[in-house]
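Readers of this paper often ask what the protein records in our data store actually look like. An entry from our holdings is shown next, in its original layout:
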Amino acid sequence: MTLRETVEADSDPYRLKNVDAGQYQTNSTKSLYGAVPVIYGHSKKSTSGIFLHNAAQQWVDITYKEKLKPSARFIVEGGTLDLFLFFGPSFKDVVRQYVDLTGRMHMPQLWTLGYHQCRYSYLTQDDVKEVVTKMEEYDFPMDAIWLDIDYTDGKKYFTWNPQNYSDPVGLQKYLASMNKRLITIIDPHIKVDSDYPVYVGGQGKYFVKWENGSDFQGDCWPGLSSYIDFLSPEARAYFANWYRYDKFNGSTETLAGIWNDMNEPSVFNVPQWENTFPPELVHYGNVRHRDIHNMYGFLQTKATHEGLLARDKHLKRPFILTRSYFAGSQRYAAMWTGDNTGDWPYLQVTYSECVLSNLVGHVFCGADVGGFFWDPEPELLQRWYQAGVWLPFYRGHANADTKRREPYLFPDDVQTVVRNALKTRYKHLLVFYTLFYQHVTNGDPVVRPLFYEYPDMIDIDDHILIGTDILATPVMEKGAKTKTVHFPGNEDTFWYRADLCTGNWTVHRGGTNETFNVDIQNSPYFYRAGSIVVVTNKQRTSTEGLLDDHFTIYANADPKGYATGFLYSDDGVSFDYQDKDYFCLLEMKYYTHPVYGFHYEQVKGNMELNFSFKEIVVHEIPESGNIAPISIEVVPGK
């Protein structure tokens, strides 16, 4: 995660220009799908930050020539120089200062934290039904299935293919009966077609233009296309209006999210412009495209967010996934790392990519499990599912020319590993949900590098913290038989190795390195001593009904015999948590002095306590031997 030297190393500077970067090179200074012009300077003693709020193309040179004074030089193509400095002094302070400036996302709907199944493309509605049915039959939990561009009529968005998706309402009724949601792709390019209402209504008014005032037309999936000018408030409103149920005919409430792709924006067959807009195009207000290029995707998600809010009468939290992003995009959309490749180096950078996104406010981040391009070998696919458990957005996705890779298509041994990974995710869903609440409240990331909590652990990229209480250390090396874990903290810090399947637990001291044997079934993760982690018991096939289930409390005592934790709940869908304080935040405490006990009480919110705890499993640091669980009585708060 440390920026590399570009000056003395004779390297190109880091380039910030949003482009369609399919099969991008890992650990490169080249452009990617999104750009957030922020740099943090971090040491064991203090942290500071720089944010250049400029959406034009940028280059950033890094030098460490003078070891005590590393420097960064920004080169900007155009736009304004709007510079913000953050003085910390801690890393947490700097991140919170940046997020306070650029904004935080609202709470996600609970189901969006489950597993998502996607492919380019599911070509028929019968194919979609079969995938959902098979996932249920083979006991793979899933909350949403995604439709890429082939669900449309000739790549015309807000339409359905009349042959292959002839009954979209019936399809959505079926999905609803299975407690699944549908996500459809909506790109910013609009097919030039005199019989296409979206194009006809925007022609000459709402599209990006040449300097002479004519609509720009470029090649993309539908063929010749015009592109919405999202800088224009009127154009955003026009685009947003098409999400209405009566405009997007065939859509229902089961179509619960939108995927904004190709929004760098991508234009085919124009290498002279790097397959995007020419810089001299003109937007609303006579703004040249070169000055705002990197915020085009941001503006599309803003329009989509406005459209979904209006569609659902502000009763539901919109869910949007975007490929292109800029500073502040987190207010409107989740993001993913784009069209990666089914090869080990892409798995190995996944944690760095999403942790860095979390540090600039984009906390709802994930990567295509298995890689979008290529056919991953079974070992890689299994390891990717295990690693993906611990990222906020969890989706399997693949390109059209890859072999089908829905989990039920693999041999039984592979299915078992993937199934266990998915169930581990669903067990910990309320952990993630609580962390999203904490982000909304104070700006802290959902997933974090070790140095966020332990400033001296700077160079470890394959471990992440989920909040403060879970350390994830998945296996990311081909053929690995062992995994070396670097335990953060000092001699007073301890970590319990969690094995919810076997019930076998071990304890490990902070500040040490330990090597574990790892067969394909094993993907180590640990609970911090002093934490309380709440997991679900009932293994459902989606999040539906999850809040009504019984939960197990893992009280992981520290050396003094104490543990604390929080648990958050709301209705999982609406904005009542912020408009009416309709939520429940529990504080939980385990203690051994003066007597053994467990206490919980509601400390915030006016939603009636709705948790049902089945059992409490207590782990205490032993003087020797194995950890023995302790059963204690639950004492509700007054």
Observations:
- The chain has a mean pLDDT of 96.
- Residues 296-311 form the longest helix (16 residues).
- The first strand starts at residue 14 and ends at 16.
